[in-house]
Design a protein that fits this description.
single chain; alpha+beta; Rossmann fold; Jelly Rolls; 12-stranded mixed beta sheet; 6-stranded mixed beta sheet; 25 helices; about 30% helix; disordered N terminus; ABC_transporter-like_CS; transmembrane; nucleotide-binding; ATP binding; ABC-2 type transport system ATP-binding protein
């Protein structure tokens, strides 16, 4: 027995495999628990379960609260690839709330022995019952009867399915909270969104059992974690950790440090019993090499699916055995279902099916959607809110304490921002509805009809499915973000059908439906349906990066007489703004799925000729904490707004009378910002800015870089009209900028301090600021701006209680009110921690990707280099250089040259030496070219023109080196 305050967090992981496993191990939907209220005791034990060749030892840790009275228990199950340490923080939090908490490593994971059975009722579910027996013997655990502990079960993904199956097979379970998990592994890994839906719930999707499109990448990721990781560790050849004593390799959990005294055998290592069996049985050796810690039947099912890409009866039998779908009618434990809107593995339709199946016999069910999932982590505020949901559910159903959580429905307020921004902004407000639409009520799901149109279109499927379109990379939403959040559709491989530009916003909450006409030469087709948000500038956003696979058989081969197909699009939560277009895309390929080997040409059209109805699900409800503050503060805010409006009106009228009519530059829309010979001198003779000239193009993220005193802030204050330049002209969208200039309404800014009123809440500050602009409330895009703040419920608390970082985030949200065309931020990352800086970096890049322009002034060189596309370097009030980051970094310095053939080294040195300002020589790093004022492009062009094959040409310095050199030269 030992006493602890909180497990320490482990260091970062060095391998991509570790990253993938951490993504898949989504058992804990929380980041950091609150400070410990009291000491808690823990006990480690290895619990025997099963018998014969199926026997295993389950590694457990019991967390005991500081209490003299028996308490209800909670069993926490981890995600695939994790261990009991993955949920240690959650265990501490629940123990501090007075629960006895049992964590364990599932068989085949962590320190537990046995083979992975994918939550087989004969093995993993039986292990859970063994653990309930253990809890029933503890004096610290409250009992409902002899051998029957008062107990709840919670877990995410792999652990969430165990919670469902455990409640179905063991009636001692009193309450469950399954998170981001599956209803049917068959339909999750072999989906097909075709045919009629057998329910009128908001996210119901067809549960096609006979056939589907194989999720090749997701399945391969799972199998790799469970097999190769164990194999490498078992033979002592692990992929290596980070030197901190924690494990490395593909079975890394969420990084929670090992408890003191725990065994140091690497999690994922091949069990000793398998090694012994392999030594006696050659077939066992082959299984070990191929399957690692998986049971043989699961290994065989994966190999069959991977080779054929089809669902055989044998594969279906294995997957169905591990699916809650067939036993939901046995669950009597009140169930809180939590599912993510950013999840290409287990979409909202899986939770929808679970909700319907459990509620059918009267079991209480509540459904909560949140802005995260297997493809994207949620924010700190969002994960803390989910933690409170879990604790509140158990408080009511295990202790009969607190508020009744009810059986309603909660989902994040829809926004029109892209999936990348959605990941960053876990602070979206929550919409609360009285019930999950269509579940147990007489009212059907409300749907809005949107007309989409387009002619019949041929869709080519290439041989072998290559090249394939790219939507999302399983488990790696960050990679999609690195690509600018963009998807890739291959010309000729898709059909597109558009609505007219929307005259009012359309909020989609759930799975939309549309009817298509399809014909294929062989009577079979594999297609992928998607719902894009197309902006007025033509930019396309795929909400959540989600697609709906369509496995079509028995359809017409005659394009003149195609077969009508009902299609259910992916379940999403997204707002299509006014002026945007809803586009249904049907493509023949997707990189994440298995594709037909044969080439072909399909015909795709809308069911009603050149038009069809896109039926969009919508859900009413109230925004949580929508009131924000008392009526007194609302009245005070209105009065303050009226006073401020009067003052601004007087200022505006006076400025209007003094304003001279200025010339409007014809290229103003393409050049949102232009400085022309701008100088700012003060009366004491100090010149803050001297003859500054530069321009910024639409869609750029420009970094204004320079040491303290360089004139950056002065330049931004002149841009905003706060001070006047002594000489020169500043143009915003072609119009002269100055105090009171109307064009400033297109600019959002944050310069020198937040300016927030401490006695008002963050929301009231934003509302008051927007009211002062005199623009309509609907133009504020308030919810998008609040989402950027990411403060959750804190947005409705007084600002005086905020940390500096929280104030900074609200101020940035204030700058983004109205989604301005030009966003100007001075030191936006001050007061933010590294994760928040990373999130802000993605927000700014994605904002510019919509066609808007961002100006960032910062002294953090690394942030400028990673965030900005272009840079203006200033020193002593003057511009030193302007260009792209690559151009700035590549001016001068040295370049590392990699040659395809080392035999060309001497010739490359001679060629480079002939370029003015370039010398080249061999070094320990390889061939290095020193550039003395020469451009990298000139040196590279000389090599290519001379026939020297180059496969690497990279600068050896970073922006910091270039900056120091440039400033030093000034």
């Amino acid at each position: 027995m030992r006493s602890l305050r909180r497990p320490a967090r482990a260091g970062g992981r060095a391998t991509l495999a570790a990253l993938l496993a951490a993504v898949v191990s989504s058992a804990a939907l929380v980041l950091a628990p609150p400070a410990a209220a009291a000491d808690i005791r823990t006990e480690d034990a290895r619990v025997p379960s099963g018998s014969g060749r199926d026997a295993a030892e389950i590694d457990t840790t019991l967390y005991l609260p500081d209490s003299d009275e028996p308490a209800p228990a909670v069993v926490l199950a981890h995600g695939f690839g994790g261990s009991k340490r993955s949920v240690a923080d959650d265990a501490v939090d629940l123990a501090e709330r007075g629960y006895v908490v049992l964590t364990f490593s599932a068989r085949g994971f962590g320190e537990s022995t046995g083979q992975i059975g994918l939550n087989d009722p004969r093995f993993e579910v039986e292990d859970l019952s063994t653990l309930l027996d253990l809890l029933a013997e503890r004096d610290e655990v409250q009992l409902d009867g002899d051998g029957d502990p008062r107990v709840g079960v919670a877990g995410g993904s792999y652990g969430g399915a165990l919670a469902l199956l455990g409640a179905a097979y063991d009636d001692r379970v009193d309450a469950i909270v399954p998170q981001i998990t599956w209803n049917s592994l068959t339909t999750a890994l072999f989906p097909s969104h075709t045919g009629d839906v057998d329910a009128d719930t908001v996210a119901a999707t067809p549960q096609t059992q006979g056939a589907g499109v194989y999720k090749r990448l997701w399945a391969g990721l799972f199998f790799g974690i469970g097999s190769s990781g164990g194999l490498l560790d078992g033979f002592g050849g692990g992929t290596g950790g980070d030197g901190d004593g924690d494990e490395g390799g593909p079975t890394v959990d969420d990084g929670t440090a090992a408890a003191p005294g725990a065994s140091q055998r690497r999690p994922g290592a091949v069990p000793a019993e398998l090694l012994e069996r392999a030594a006696q049985d050659p077939q066992a050796v082959e299984q070990l090499l191929t399957c690692g810690r998986f049971r043989a039947e699961i290994c065989a099912a994966y190999q069959t699916a991977a080779e054929s890409g089809t669902l055989t009866p044998e594969v279906a039998a294995v997957l169905d055995r591990s699916s809650p779908a067939g036993v939901l009618d046995r669950i009597e434990a009140p169930t809180l279902l939590i599912q993510g809107t950013q999840d290409s593995l287990f979409g909202l339709g899986q939770a929808d099916a679970n909700a319907r199946g459990i509620a059918a016999d009267g079991t209480p069910v509540k459904v909560v959607w949140f802005g995260g999932g297997h493809d994207a982590s949620s924010s700190e505020s969002q994960t803390q809110a989910l933690r409170e949901q879990v604790a509140g559910w158990f408080d009511w159903h295990l202790r009969e304490q607190g508020e009744d959580p009810g059986t309603g429905f909660e989902y994040p307020a829809p926004t029109g921002l892209g999936s990348t921004l959605g990941r960053v902004q876990g602070g979206n407000r929550t919409i609360v509805a009285e019930q999950y639409p269509g579940l147990g009520g007489d009212e059907p799901t409300a749907r809005r009809d949107v007309r989409v149109s387009g002619p019949l279109q041929p869709v080519v499927t290439p041989a072998g499915g290559t090249p394939a379109s790219l939507t999302t990379v399983p488990g790696l939403g960050a990679l999609t973000a690195a690509l600018g959040g963009m998807t890739l559709e291959i010309p000729g491989q898709y059909a597109a059908f558009d609505s007219t530009p929307l005259e009012q916003p359309v909020e989609v909450v759930g799975a939309a439906t549309v009817d298509l006409l399809v014909a294929a030469p062989e009577g079979e087709a594999t297609l992928f349906a998607k719902l894009y948000d197309v902006g007025p500038d033509g930019s396309m956003t795929l909400p959540g990066g989600l697609v709906a696979p369509l496995a079509l058989t028995g359809i017409s081969a005659d394009p003149t007489s195609p077969t009508q197909v009902s299609v259910t699009l992916p379940g999403i939560v997204h707002r299509f703004e006014t002026g945007h277009t809803m586009r249904v895309v049907v493509s023949s390929t997707d990189q994440a799925f298995a594709l037909p080997a044969e080439a072909g040409v399909y015909s795709v059209a809308l069911a009603d000729g050149d038009a069809a109805v896109l039926a969009v699900p919508q859900v009413g409800g109230e925004a949580e904490n929508a009131a924000g503050s008392s009526r007194w503060w609302v009245l005070l805010g209105v009065l303050a707004a009226l006073g401020l409006l009067g003052w601004l009106a007087a200022r505006w009228w006076g400025a209007r009378r003094r304003r001279q009519v200025s010339h409007v530059q014809p290229d103003g829309e393409d050049v949102p910002l232009r400085f022309e010979g701008v100088t700012k001198a003060y009366k004491d003779g100090f010149v803050a800015v001297k003859d500054l000239s530069f321009e910024v193009r639409r869609g750029q993220v420009l970094g204004l870089l320079g040491p303290n005193g360089a004139g950056k802030t002065t330049s931004l204050r002149m841009l905003m009209g706060l001070i006047k330049p002594t000489e020169g002209r500043i143009s915003i969208f072609g119009h002269a900028a100055g105090p009171g200039a109307p064009v400033l309404s297109r600019l959002g800014s944050f310069v020198e301090g937040t300016g927030l009123q401490p006695h008002l809440s963050g929301r009231d500050n934003l509302t008051l600021y927007w009211a002062a602009t005199g623009r309509p409330p609907e133009d504020a895009h308030m919810e998008e701006a609040i989402a950027v703040a990411g403060l959750g419920a804190a947005i409705d608390r007084p600002v005086r209680r905020y940390s500096q970082g929280m104030r900074q985030r609200v101020a940035i949200a204030q700058a983004m009110l109205g989604l301005p065309d030009l966003l100007v931020l001075d030191e936006p990352t001050n007061g933010l921690d590294p994760p928040q800086i990373h999130a802000m970096r993605e927000v700014l890049r994605d904002y510019a990707a919509t066609g808007r322009t961002v100006i960032v002034s910062s002294h953090l060189l690394s942030e400028i280099e990673q965030t900005c596309s272009h840079v203006v370097v200033m020193a002593r009030g003057q511009k030193i250089v302007q260009g792209t980051v690559d151009e700035i970094v590549g001016t001068g310095g040295s370049v590392l040259v990699g040659l395809t053939d080392d035999a060309d080294t001497d010739r490359a040195i001679a060629v480079l030496g002939a370029v003015p300002g370039v010398t080249a020589a061999r070094t320990d790093e390889g061939l290095v070219a020193e550039l003395d004022g020469a451009r990298r492009s000139d040196a590279l062009q000389a090599l290519v023109s001379s026939g020297v094959a180059v496969d690497q040409f990279t600068p050896r310095r970073r922006l910091e080196d270039a900056f120091l050199a440039l400033v030093g030269e000034s």
